[in-house]
Design goal:
Layout: E1 6-7, H1 10-13, H2 40-51, E2 59-62, H3 69-82, E3 89-93, E4 103-107, H4 111-133, H5 137-167, E5 170-175, E6 178-185, E7 188-189, H6 192-196, H7 200-257, H8 262-277, H9 280-292, H10 297-302, E8 314-317, E9 327-329, H11 335-339, E10 341-342, E11 345-347, E12 350-352, E13 358-359, H12 362-366, E14 370-374, H13 375-380, H14 384-394, E15 396-397, H15 402-406, E16 419-420, E17 424-429, H16 431-440, H17 442-447, E18 450-453, E19 457-459, H18 462-479, H19 486-500, E20 505-507, H20 510-526, H21 534-548, H22 550-560, E21 571-572, E22 575-584, E23 587-600, E24 605-608, H23 609-612, H24 618-635, E25 644-649, H25 662-674, E26 678-679, E27 682-684, E28 687-688, E29 694-695, H26 700-714, E30 721-725, H27 736-743, E31 748-752, H28 755-763, H29 781-804
Parallel strand pairs: 2-17, 2-18, 9-14, 14-17, 22-27, 24-25, 27-30, 30-31
Antiparallel strand pairs: 1-31, 3-4, 3-8, 5-6, 6-7, 10-13, 11-12, 15-16, 19-20, 21-26, 22-23, 23-25, 28-29
Helix pairs in contact: 2-3, 4-7, 4-9, 5-7, 7-8, 18-19, 19-21, 20-21, 25-28, 25-29
């Protein structure tokens, strides 16, 4: 066995956390944790992103789920928001010139609610006080006076015309067609027959006089209509005076109250003007009230009195109760929920809307503060991402209907005045989405210039362990769980190191740690413990594995029954146990597979059967192709590499991916070439490069434990174990039963850094190093491989000569393969 290959001690198989290193008896003694653990880089980025006020410095927080992104950022935002002023209120009011374009009014926090109440009160007072003013005795007297004056003047005009007509033997006669000038004789109107009996001269005289009087009548009628218009104008002016007198003090009181806000004062002036221009609405209220007293109930429901909603205020952002700047987390960032929406209601078969149906979005509520959204949510909602970017680029938020964007059937909608936007947006998502947006969305780079990168692990030191204890105590206090003893905290820390597979690191995915705390508290209660002990944490871990490892047990059962052929003792040429990792969502386990290699004469090189039938993934295929590079560089300096070799995973029918089996495949190949058998009690994992260096792989703990379970099922002999890359030793955090088996000498874990070390360990023979003449020592693995390759090359050369019928084969075509 090579001196470099060595067996690992139990201390190297895992790192333990000493409960005596803690200075508490229960996490209940510890202060609550109000800081972020292990995210210094992200915390610095978040602090920078929040403080910088330049445009375009919105933030994207990236990292796996459970790393505390949302919690960390929210705490920072709330802390920062407490120091900032409360933003203004925003209202929408009616645009009397163009009702489809409501106007926005900005007011200090709290003033918007006051204005809303004041305008509601004004609308109610208009409904009650103004109609009553038309019932006053003074109003009725003045209205009667105007009517009497009109009647008197009308009578005078017609009286004058009547006298003029009588002086000419004519009279005014009321007909169905109106007033007419008719000639009279002896006080009686002449009939058409009587007029026809007159002589022609007399008829002509009558017609001339009648025509002149008709002109005079038409002139008097015009004067009457003018008088009537003047009377109506006087009545209308009287109504305006009555309404103006009634509402003037109401409007003036509001203008005095809001005199420092020009937009409100101007709005109130427009309200006054609109009221005076629509006094008939107030008179109609009284008329309808009188009519409804005698109207059937069914008809009463269809009569709508004026509600004067056009004078009210739509308060879309109310910060009266806000302390500091707002921090808004939008859980459902659809386009309407972000930008706002325009609602409609059905009236007589049509959809109608007005400024009071404008609803604020998250950007309105967060204006002057901070908005948090999940990247996946905002990107998967139609138009939401584009709407958000448009608002940030234009620095204003404009409520718009999605019907127009989609080209749907047009209906009446609004074009509200945009509201200036001053907000810091924080998008939270995973790294893949960040890099996709950065490379594919040109606006993203300009808008989200701050990247807060949350990691999944931190250094394991005394400070980290103490922070873990405080975190556990905080969870227990917040959720009323049983507190943890030092042994339980130590077990959680050890499990955290196993999660990240590193002896010097612990996890910062505290969502998973919090779940373990909850489950451990549950099992403590089931075990009758007032305080969570280390055994309760172990029970929680074991139970979680048991809930997820049904498939693992099924595979182990198939191995135990020899349905899946795995040898754990003896020696076989060209056969080695490889280990892979099978992920099952929240649980992964190691699966042992038999890898075999066969070599023979030919020029096909190393053929991977799994690749040929398209079961090999790209990374796995790369690892197999590296084997040819290793063989060529190691053994084909003086002779051509003339062989055919087939390698495969036996009884494996799913896709093979990853290069962690490359060293195992190479060992099987070297065994087949050398003829030296491989110990079946050892399993191998590790990547390899063309120079024969064994490289680190992932899932080392699961792989060791997977083969350990196979050996335990078939019986531990004391000669079994796993060979891992030396660079993976720091990743070992093995389960207790494996460590105990190693300690008792029933199982072994070896580390190697080169293929030579590994093949020596597997075959029990030295790999061999070239001497000064370039030859390998007799009896070594490499010498046997070299000899076999040379024999294969000679056989190929001999076969080629015999095939072409020439001693040297010059000038003849050689076959592409000699298999």
């Amino acid at each position: 066995m090579s001196e470099a290959a060595r067996e690992l001690s139990t201390e190297e198989l895992r790192r333990t956390c000493d409960p005596s290193s803690f200075d508490f008896e229960s996490t209940a003694e510890l202060p609550s944790l109000d800081e972020v653990i292990g995210q210094d880089r992200a915390v610095s980025a978040v602090s920078f992103g929040i403080d910088i006020e330049s445009p375009g410095y919105h933030m994207y927080a990236l990292g796996p789920v459970g790393t505390g992104k949302t919690t960390t950022i929210r705490k920072f935002l709330e802390r920062k928001a407490d120091e900032q002023p409360v933003p203004d209120d925003w209202c929408y009011v009616n645009n009397f010139d163009d009702p489809d374009k409501p106007q926005a009014i900005r007011l200090p926090a709290g003033k918007g609610r006051e204005l809303e109440k004041d305008m509601d009160r004004l609308a109610e007072e208009l409904r009650t006080e103004v109609p009553q003013a038309f019932e006053s005795e003074e109003y009725e007297q003045e209205q009667e006076k105007i009517q009497e004056e009109f009647q008197e003047r009308q009578q005078e005009l017609f009286q004058e015309l009547e006298e003029e007509a009588q002086s000419r033997d004519f009279t005014l006669l009321q007909t169905p067609q109106g007033l007419a000038i008719v000639p009279v004789q002896q006080g009686e109107p002449l009939t058409p027959d009587q007029i026809n009996q007159l002589d022609e001269q007399r008829r002509e005289e009558l017609e001339e006089q009648q025509e002149a009087l008709q002109d005079e009548l038409r002139d008097r009628m015009r004067q009457v209509r003018q008088l009537q218009r003047k009377a109506k104008d006087r009545v209308r002016e009287l109504d305006r005076q009555v309404v103006g007198f009634t509402v003037e003090h109401l409007i003036e009181a509001l203008q005095e109250k809001y005199e420092e806000f020009d937009e409100v004062v101007d709005f109130l002036a427009r309200v006054r003007q609109d009221i005076l221009e629509n006094v008939e609405d107030f008179k109609r209220i009284r008329q309808m009230e009188q009519a409804q007293q005698q109207m059937p109930a069914a008809l009463m429901q269809r009569q709508q009195q004026p509600d004067f909603d056009q004078y009210r205020v739509n308060l879309i952002v109310d910060n009266a109760d806000t302390e500091g700047a707002p921090v808004v987390l939008e859980a459902n960032p659809t386009h309407p929920n972000l930008i706002g929406r325009i609602e409609h209601q059905a009236q007589f078969g049509a959809l109608v809307t007005n400024f009071q149906m404008l609803k604020a979005g998250a950007l309105h509520r967060a204006n002057g503060g901070y908005l948090m959204v999940e990247a996946r949510d905002v990107l998967t909602k139609p138009m939401a991402w584009e709407g958000l970017k448009r608002a940030l680029k234009n620095q204003e938020v404009c409520i718009e209907s999605m019907r127009e964007a989609y080209g749907a059937i047009a209906t009446r909608t609004l074009e509200p005045e945009p509201i200036p936007l001053d907000v810091k947006v924080i998008v939270i998502g995973d790294p893949l989405i960040y890099y996709l947006l950065y490379n594919l969305d040109e606006d993203f780079q300009e808008l989200f210039k701050v990247k807060a990168d949350f990691g999944v692990r931190m250094d394991w030191d005394d400070g980290a362990a103490h922070q873990y204890a405080r975190f556990i105590g905080t969870i227990c206090d917040d959720e009323d769980l049983a507190h943890f003893a030092p042994s339980a905290v130590a077990r959680v820390v050890e499990h955290s190191a196993r999660v990240v597979a590193h002896q010097k690191k612990v996890a910062t995915k505290f969502g998973d740690i919090a779940d373990l705390v909850r489950q451990s508290s549950y099992w403590a209660g089931r075990n009758g413990h007032d305080m969570v002990q280390g055994e309760d944490v172990s029970k929680a871990i074991d139970e979680r594995i048991y809930r997820s490892n049904r498939l693992e047990e099924l595979i182990q059962e198939m191995i135990d029954e020899d349905t899946l052929l795995i040898d754990t003792d003896g020696e076989v040429v060209g056969q080695v146990n490889g280990i892979s990792v099978m992920p099952l969502g929240d649980y992964s386990f190691g699966k042992t597979s038999r890898i075999t290699a066969r070599t023979h004469v030919g020029r096909s090189g190393v053929v991977n059967i799994d690749r040929e039938i398209e079961l090999g993934g790209r990374v796995h295929n790369k690892g197999v192709m590296i084997l040819s590079g290793y063989l060529g560089g190691k053994f084909a300096d003086d002779v051509p590499l003339a062989l055919s070799a087939s390698i495969t995973f036996e009884q494996l029918y799913e896709e093979v991916e990853g290069d962690s089996a490359a060293s195992a495949e190479l060992y099987a190949l070297l065994s087949s070439l050398s003829g030296y058998p491989i110990r079946q009690g050892l399993a191998v994992t590790g990547s390899v490069n063309q120079r024969g260096q064994v490289q680190a792989i992932g899932g080392v703990n699961e792989k060791i434990e997977g083969f350990f379970e196979v050996c335990r099922l078939k019986g531990l002999t004391g000669d079994q174990g796993v060979i891992i890359p030396r660079s993976n030793v720091k990743n070992l955090m093995l389960r207790d039963e494996v460590v105990e088996a190693v300690q008792d000498g029933r199982f072994h874990v070896y580390s190697v850094s080169t293929v030579d070390e590994g093949i020596a360990l597997l075959t029990g023979r030295e790999a061999g190093e070239r001497d000064a003449d370039g030859a390998y020592p007799e009896g070594t693995v490499n010498a046997a491989v070299q000899e076999r390759l040379e024999n294969l090359a000679r056989k190929v050369k001999t076969f080629v000569r015999e095939e072409v019928g020439s001693p040297d084969g010059h000038g003849q075509r050689e076959p592409a393969s000699a298999d």
